Amino acid sequence: MNKLRAVKSQALEVVWAYLYSAREKEAWQSLAEMWPAGDLERVRGEILKARARGIHAQLDGTSMGRLVKHGKPIFNQSEVTPAKAILMRVYPLEGQEGR
Fold first, then answer.
1. What sign for the dihedral angle of Cα 46, 63, 25, 17?
2. How do residues 30-58 score in pLDDT, each as one tens digit?
3. Quick one: which of 31, 64, 60 has its CA closest to 48?
4. CA-CA distance, 10 to 43, in Å (whole number)?
5. Of the candidates 18, 53, 15, 56, which has an alpha carbon nearest to the alpha carbon of residue 33?
């Protein structure tokens, strides 16, 4: 039973990923391929209800967006602090402990 639950969760994750990347056709196709046919419409309906209550309830629609070029950079490169290692341990490779 736990394995079945894990597989169903993974199938739903794939469907949600398609839906949130604006690929609805692929989402429903994947659901149909991975979900038992007898339960398909119920699950699809539940996904649509959850989606309507979730992020889609906060949107006016899908924005196609457009690239906006700004005249100045977002940050000044000279103000960026380079990354430093916090803790670095070096482990010898197997068979090279005494070298």
1. negative
2. 999 998 899 899 999 999 988 888 766 66
3. 31
4. 14
5. 15
CB atoms within 10 A of CB 56: 14
SS3 assignment, position 66? coil
**1 C-beta neighbours (distance < 10 Å), count:** 5
DSSP for residue 91: P
pTM: predicted TM-score of the whole model, two decimal places: 0.53
The residue-averaged pLDDT of 76-91 equals 70
Q: Computed over its alpha carbons, how large is the radius of gyration of the chain?
A: 24
Question: In which region does residue 11 sit, left (phi positive, over 0), alpha (psi from -120 to 50) or beta (all else)?
Answer: alpha
Classified as helix, coil or strand, 54 is coil
pLDDT tens for 8-31 read 888 899 998 998 888 899 999 999
Nearest partner of 15 among 53, 52, 44, judged by Cα: 44
